Amino acid sequence: MAGIAQEISTASTAPNELKELLGKFIEPGRVLTRPIDRIAFASDASFYRLIPRAVVLAKGTKEIQSLFRFSHQSRIPLTFRTAGTSLSGQAVTDGILVEVARYWKAVSVEAGGKKVRVQPGVIGAHVNRALLPHRAKIGPDPASINACMIGGILSNNSSGMCCGVALNAYHTLDSLTFVLPSGTAIDSADPNANELFREREPRLAEGLFALRREILAHPALLERIRAKYRTKNTTGYSLNAFIDFERPVDIFAHLLIGSEGTLAFLAEAVLNTVPDLPVKYTGLLLFPDLYAACEAIVPLREADAKAVELMDRASLRSVEDQPGIPASIRKLSPAAAGLLVEFQSESESDRQTLESRARAIVGKLKLVEPPLFTHEPAEQALLWKIRAGMYPAVGAVRMSGTTVIIEDVAFPVEHLADAALDLTKLFAKHRYDNAIIFGHAKDGNLHFVMTQSFNDQAAVDQYAGFMEELVKLVVDRYHGALKAEHGTGRNIAPFVETEWGWEAYSIMKRLKQLADPENLLNPGVIINSDPKAYLHHLKPMPAVEPEVDKCIECGYCESKCPSRDLTTTPRRRIVIRREMARLQNETGAGRELLAALEADFPYDVLDTCAVDGLCATACPVAIDTGQLTKRLRGMRHSARAQSFASYLAENFGRVESGVRMALRAGHAIESVFGAGAMIGITRLMRFFAGQAIPLWARDVPSAAHRLPQTQRQNAEAIYFPSCISRVMGRLPGEPDDFTAVQLLVSLGARAGVPVHIPESVAGLCCGVPFSSKGFEPAHALACNRAIERFWEWSGEGGLPIVIDTSPCTYGLLTSRLHLTPMNQGKFDRLRILDSIAFVHGTLLPKLKIRRKSASATLHTVCSVEKMSLGSKLEAVARACSGRVKIPANTGCCGFAGDRGFLLPELTASATRLEAAEAAAENSEGYFSSSRTCEIGMSRATGRIYRSFLHLVEQATRE
């Protein structure tokens, strides 16, 4: 590293030079300095933006230590980032952004589920999934638990809906492995950890002792700290560590909880788990006004309600039109408010007790509607979805050009009603007419959301005036906390001293100086001397497209995206689109940046998007970035290309014949010239003809067999084998027994439910291949042709249409908007079933299970998740197999029809985690419901994936 230091002294550390320097101790491919990468990581879920000089995808503590040394030598700050769901700007920097999500995903359950060992890149919900068999979970339960990661949960001392203060990250920490800016790495669970800490970091250890003595010597400060942490409070550092612990290593480990990455790097944690109480009784209570709702909080808390979530009328209005929301919410008066309440128990025998307890307390409350209580998990999930979707829902309907601000304050519960009313008055005074209030009322914790423009000085001044009065309201009038669970961040950093006072703030400043004397670790967060820091680095939000304008960059979508570890994600695609829109009228450097983004945009943003739509299932406002990608792809096509695509859709039979012929020819060439011949030929063809030529691979299937003959007479369903089933046959290494088409016909016959394959099925396509590439006229033509044939084949809707490839089923089920008015009428009378639903609901009940396989591993394709058929596929598998495994990291395989042939790197990246999990299972069989996805998973795992119909056949064959 000494040589690097000399180079740094004369280098400008421009991005390219920085990449070269960092590449001396980190693989160059994990050092991202292209403009498109730096822009993509410039935003988190907050309303702040800083463009990093480089993004490093770090692996292991040795690289972290090297990065710390480099930071000190170069004087370039470091900021660590996991999911980037931070709401107060903790995960952005203009220095080096170190991403510690991708390669930091280890999780192991210990002590029979009483503890769990986790790395920072594990999503909170994934930890809970690993703990599920032990009926345990982690204590923190933030609303973002399906997206946020352990690194952020610990760094922000997250709490959430039910955990309150006692079960937050701080109080459930068992031990921590951390790396100091000096490079010292300590595992606090090591029996010699304290001695090592004092030996290697004497200045820090003695400084912590001194700060502890100072606090203990000041009774007023000591009592203030104790009082502040009886309620939710994440403003500043966790000063309670100084009075809760004596050993320096324990003090420091707990100071790191809530430190927002400003004191050290958290490499691994062991958390004490809490019981996952399985018996839940959940209810929605509606009140005439906010005051009445707040008055009910103390009685509900005393009745041992585990969760009491407050929602004002504006927040309820933000979600009242979403599917499944109770109709009574739409009829509420403008002053009304609601509480989402949940009682929990470990024992099923307590269920009636929970009901009685709820009934007794609710009978005394001032309600405007009868309470809506339920034991049903699906209904409970819907009620919680109401609460969880409020923040993004407000963001989705905001005016173009505005951003979303969410803050979380805490008041003494006994003053919550008055404080909530004062907060609404503050919104009115500063003209935030669309602001909403909700939150964890049991703990006095209120979140408020408002939309704000930062496009001119008047708007910035409006926000500054509001913040000044908010601080006075929370701190001076009610002695509350400016931050209850989201972390201090950039927005509240200038007000930490105001809340805590000079003495406590002085201790925090000295703590930061002891741990990070160079102030190079996430500077400006928590400790910031600039009183106007919260008004700097505000995120621009230009108007672009409808999908883009709705997005609040919360990051919930990212874990679902198959290209997340290859190029970009839905959030990053939108961030890049916004930056390109902002740069349209720029000159000079702005034009150069735009040109650089435009050069990388086709591959990074468009080509590597699998357009699977899974992002919409995670997005609280259902933004399907895939639809945007399809539209942008369509804009790249010339009129001639669109016309040719329509010709192919009209003459799809020729396409089928051509593909089958190509498959036969390819395998024939391989048999004569060897396995690599076709790979070389297609690479050469791609060199001359471009990316549209698919690459041959050793796992390309053979051409499909002829379709089996069936009879229309007595048929109880029409079977439409997809074009994939009609074209692609056996995979290399797959048993040469039956095709999926043959199996569905034989299973139907065996169950007494014969199916018929019409002779005119050849040349018919669902339209998905055209839609995914942006050929919308061809897509519309194809799906209209399909619906017309379905109408004819089914006897005008008399028989159901069964489709054997789930993406094709989904494509046709969602095709209505692309149909002619006449075909829409036909569509409405058709019954289109995926083979999963047909087997689960019609065939399996009539088939006799004769033998079960020992084990089966499933890959649930994207369309199965979107059609909510995953549980039915699993039920079919459980009926036919003794043990069924669905990998925790199951997601889109990225094959996306033909994308796996065009961009094999997408499938390799998308399947990395799932494949490792599936391959380790050594199941007797591996199954799915889409041939191309089966190719992708077979390629990734080295195991042969087949249609789930093979599993059913094995279990029911005589």
General description of the model:
With 958 residues, this protein is an alpha/beta fold. The protein folds into three domains: 1-276 and 487-541, Uridine Diphospho-n-acetylenolpyruvylglucosamine Reductase, domain 3 (2-Layer Sandwich), CATH 3.30.465.10; 279-486, FAD-linked oxidases, C-terminal domain (Vanillyl-alcohol Oxidase, Chain A, domain 3, 3-Layer(aba) Sandwich); 637-958, no CATH class. Helices cover 45% and strands 12% of the residues. It has 44 helices and 26 strands. The strands form six sheets. It has a seven-stranded antiparallel sheet with strand order 15-12-14-13-17-18-16, sandwiched between helices. The chain has a five-stranded antiparallel sheet with strand order 5-6-10-8-9. Helix 43 (931-941) links the parallel strand 25 (925-928) and strand 26 (945-947). Helix 7 (193-200) packs across helix 8 and helix 28 (639-650) packs across helix 29 (652-673). It is globular, with a radius of gyration of 30 Å. The chain starts with a helix and ends with a helix. Mean pLDDT is 92; it is low at 2-11.
Please provide a brief summary of the model:
Helices cover 45% and strands 12% of the residues. The chain has 44 helices and 26 strands.
In DSSP terms (H or I, runs of 4 or more residues), the helix count works out at: 44
Tell me, briefly, the overall form. Answer: globular
Low-confidence stretches: 2-11
End-to-end gap: 70 Å
The major β-sheet equals: 7 strands, antiparallel
In order across it, which strands form the biggest sheet?
15-12-14-13-17-18-16
What is the CATH T-level topology of the largest domain?
Uridine Diphospho-n-acetylenolpyruvylglucosamine Reductase, domain 3
Mean pLDDT: 92
CATH-level-2 architecture of the largest domain: 2-Layer Sandwich
SS-based class: alpha/beta
Domain tally: 3
Helicity range of the residues? 40-55%
Kindly estimate the percentage of residues that lie in beta strands according to DSSP. Answer: 5-15%
Per DSSP E runs of 2 or more residues, the count of β-strands stands at 26
Radius of gyration: 30 Å
Question: Regarding CATH, which class of the largest domain?
Answer: Alpha Beta
